[in-house]
What does this fold into?
Amino acid sequence: TGDIAEQKKLLNELEELSGQVYKTNPARGKMYYRIVYNNKAGIFKDGKQYDSARFYYSALYQNTLSDHNLEMSAISAAGLADVYYETGNFDSALYYCRIGSKNALEARRLDFYRRNHLRFAKIYFRQGSIDSALQYAYLGLSEFKTYSDTSRSLSEVLLLLSRLHEKKKRFDSAYYYLAAYYEQDNQDVKQQRINDVHNISMQEVLNQ
It folds into this structure.
């Protein structure tokens, strides 16, 4: 909780600084504002404060329309899709997920585009559209196995595939993907531990 409070305090200071920069360099000031709003939205989303997260993602999305910044539009649309998904508004989640995918593709941010396959699969699953969910889950699985930027997404999609096959009463497939999920999840935990040790070691070097 303390860390989150510190992050919010820092972001408020950065937002104030962005206003000062905007007076002399509007383009750079606008960029700073967008970074601050995206980070604020993410903190509120992670803290399940969805109304506040939606406010900042919406403000960011509307701001990107003024200069057709496709990359930031894709990021904010994906954030809105997540917020609407978590609050049970699946039609709005699909709407922003489609926008996010389109803009990510046009901006050549294929990492964002790939992660939206999982978003589509999760939304369709919650809507009960199992076949559509399977289609996107398999599409995501194929790409997540190839690209290193989506290892956590790979764990998520394996677990989702297990649940989808369970819904279809394909229990052998459900077991197969559940076992694959646990194997991948263990790898992710090990990698996170390695990263944590590396970060601690680097901090010790910096402190010397």
Remarks:
- Residues 193-208 have pLDDT under 50 and may be disordered.
- The longest helix spans residues 171-207.
- The two ends are 29 Å apart (CA to CA).
